[in-house]
Amino acid sequence: MNKRKVTLAAAAAGVITGVAGLSLAAMPAGAGQPPSLPDVSAESLVEQVLTSKPGAFGGTVEVDNKLGLPALAEIPQLADGKHSARIWTDGNGKFRAALPNGQSEQTIVNDGKITWSWNSANNEVTKAEHKADQPKPDEQKAQAVDPAAAAKQVVGMTKEFSDITVDGTARVANRAAYELVLTPKASEKTLIREVRIAVDAELKMPLRVAVLTNGASEPAGTVGFSEINVGAQDPKLFEFTPPAQAKVTTPEAKEQKDRDRGPELGLEQALQGKDPQIFGTGWDTVVGARIPAEAMTQVPAEAQGLVDKFTKKVSGAWGSGQIFNTKVATILIADDGRVVAGAVPEQVLFDTIGQVK
Amino acid sequence: MITRQFGSEVRWMLRRPRTLIGLFGLILVPILISFGIWTASDDGESGGGPPGLGAILQGNGMVVPIFTLFLSLNLLLPLVASIWAADGLAGEAQHGTLRGLLVAPVSRVRLLFVKLFGLAAMSLFAVTLMAVVGIIAGTAFLGTDGMMTLSGTTLSTAEGLARIGLFILLVTFQMVAIGAVALAVSSTTEHPLVVQAATMTTIIVFQVLGQFTSLDWLHPFLITTGFPGLIDVMRDPIPLGQIGDSTLLAGCYLLIGTGLAAIRLVTKDS
C-alpha cells in the first residue's frame, strides 16, 4: 500500500514536472535583473560606439518586426513577425550570414575576395568578385540583420539631430549593456519617437536596436543578438565552395533575370537605386527616385493588385499617386514614376515630391 | 529479468502481422520519394521539387532519409507510434491478457516501462529502417557526392551519416513522446482503435491550431510546433536552439504521458 502511494506520488510529480516544463517553455524569456554598471556620459558612449571596431564574433540575431511591411522575396527577415539569422565575422571584413526562411536558407559568405550568395530554395549561387568602389548588394542584405552595423549607421546619421541620453542598463544575449536612447529633436518631422540601442559595456558594440514610434509603447521593430560569442571564429566559416549541383551565376546575369521577372522588382531596385536623390537631413531625410516610365506601364495586373492592396490612392497639388504607410516609414509613388520615401508623415512627402528630378 | 521482458515484448511486437505491414509501408516512403525526384530530374528542368528541403534533393541522395523522416513525422510516424501504444495496453485488455499481467507478481510500473521500452525500441527500429532504405534508395536513384546542406556547404559522407544518425535519434524521441501519451490513453480503454483515433485526431488538430497566428500563445504547448525546427539538422553549422526546444517539448510530453499512464495502471482494479 505504501509503495503504491510512493509510486503514485512519483508519477504525479512526473506529470506536474511535464506541465511545468511546458509552461516554462511557453513563457517569454525574462529580461532578468539589469546589471549595474559605472555611469557613462551619453557623448562618450556615442563616440565609443562610432569608433569601436568590433572584433571577431559569431551570434544569433533575433528580428522582431511589427512594421507592417509586405514580405519581400529578397529579404524574408524583414517581413512582419519574428525571424532569426546567424552571423559570423572575423573582424577583418570576412563574414558569413545564414538567413533561414522557413525550411530553406540563404547563406552569404564574404571570403575576402569573393562574396558568395547561396539560396537553397532554387539551388543557386551568386558569385560576386570584389571590385574596387562597387557596392555589394548581398553584403548590404547581410548587414541589414547585423545589429552592430545597423546601429552604427543610425547613430552616425542622426546623432546631430537627436537628444541623446543613457537610460539605464540592460542584459542582452547575456552581456551587460548600456541603453543608449536617441530621441529626435522637436524640430524633426518624423514618425519615430525614439531609438534605443543597447551598447555592450565592455566592447562598446551595439547588441540590440529597438525602434519606437509615436503613440506605441511596444517597439515597432527590434533587431538584437539573442546569443553571441566574442572571439576568433572557425576560419572554415569564411570559405565557400559552391555545391556540385548548384547553378553559379554572376550578379549581372541575376540582375538581368530579375528585371525580366517583373516591375515590382524594378520598384525595389529603384528604391535601393544606384543614385537615389536625398532631400533634407537627419530624421526627416527623404529619399527620392524615378522609376523609368516603361517600368510603370508594364505592371501586370497581378502585381498591380498587390500594390493596390497595400497602398491607398492620394492626390494633391503635386499630382496623384499611391501612398504606402508603415509604422516607421511612408512611401509615396506618383503615377508618373516619381518615388519618395522616408521615416516621415505623409505631408512631408507631399511637400518633397516636387523636387524629385 | 527485465532484459528478458524487454526482449519478449519486442519479439511479440515484431510477430504481429500489422507491425510487419506497417514497417513495409514505411520503407516504401523513401523509395517513392527517391523515385519521384529521379523521374522529375529526367524532365530536364531542375528545381521542380517541393520547397524547402525538397529543393536540394536533386543529385543529393544522402538527404533523402532526412527528407523522408521529416515528412513522415507529421502523420505517418505518430500513426505507427499510436498503433504500438494501442496494442501495448488496450490491445492486451481487449484480449484479456492484460488482466493476467496486472495480477502477476510484477510491479505495474515495471509493466509500463516494458511497454514503453518496446515502443521506443520499435520506434528506433522503424526510423532507422526508413533512414537506411532512404540512404540506399537516395544514393541509387539520385547519386551522391557527400551531403549538401541547406547552408550550401557539402559534408563528407561520414559527417552526413552522423547528421542522419542525430536526426534518427531526434525523430525517435518525438515518436516515443507521442507514444507515451498514447500509452496513457491506452491504459484507460479496451479498444485499441480509440487510442489510435484519439492520438491521430490530437496530432491533426494540433497541426491545424498551429496554422492560426491568432493562437500563437497556444503554440508553445503543442508538440507539433517542435517538428519543423528539427530541420535545423540540415543547416551548417547546426543551430542547437530549435532542436533543443523541440526535444524539451517532447520530453515534457513524455513525462506527462508516462506519469498519467502510471497513475492509471497503479490505481486500476485488476
TrEMBL record, chain A:
Residues 1-25 form the signal peptide. Residues 125-145, 245-264 are annotated as: Disordered. The keyword Lipoprotein applies. It comes from the Bacteria. Keywords: Lipoprotein, Signal. Residues 126-141, 252-263 have a biased composition (Basic and acidic residues). This is Outer membrane lipoprotein-sorting protein. It comes from Lentzea albidocapillata subsp. violacea.
TrEMBL record, chain B:
It holds the Pfam family ABC2_membrane_2. The chain crosses the membrane at residues 20-41, 61-86, 116-141, 161-186, 193-212, 248-267. GO terms for cellular component: plasma membrane. This is ABC-2 type transport system permease protein. GO terms for molecular function: ABC-type transporter activity. It comes from Lentzea albidocapillata subsp. violacea. Keywords: Membrane, Transmembrane, Transmembrane helix.
